[in-house]
Amino acid sequence: MTIHIALLRGINVGGKNIIKMAELKRSLTEQGFSKVQTYIQSGNILFASEEEGALGLRMEEVIRRDFGLDIPVVLRTASELRATAEGCPFTPEEIAAAEAASTGECLYVAFLRSEPTAEALKRFAAYANEQELFRTSGREVYLLFKESVRNSKLAANLQKLDAYATVRNWKTVGKLLSLAEGMETLN
After folding, report:
1. 73, exposed or middle or buried, with CB in 10 Å at 0-12, 13-18, 19+?
2. pTM above 0.90, yes or no
3. Quick one: 20 and 73 in the same domain?
């Protein structure tokens, strides 16, 4: 079985789109998703499946039906997440410099449903500066902030990429990868 990571966009943030993870886990399990586990309240779901295809759309339908919310789901397999973690385009020196200047997390990944076009990347790049950097690799946009992400014009303009995107900090990416690898060893 393949281990999948579902990244939900915009749930349990600022008191909006509230979904309790235990209830979501139950709903997904009842709909045939296997070995479902969640990580923190921001919409990270791991599950096993032999099925390929429209798993994200199926999950969106379960959320719509059971919770009355239209929540975009971005899917990655464990091997895709591993490649994301191993493929960080920022050097350790760049990350260390950002960490020294930042008041919080500095490295993030925006997971996109589809690869952005050159035109979309050009629109998005207009918001980058010396304090807010990005690099892309396929459907991932790596973001490095030398100041807080909270007031970032770059992060606020991810929609310029013309694809559903959901963002996770680097610690969450690492934890999800660890959980996925643990699930793989049990298969």
Report:
1. buried
2. yes
3. yes
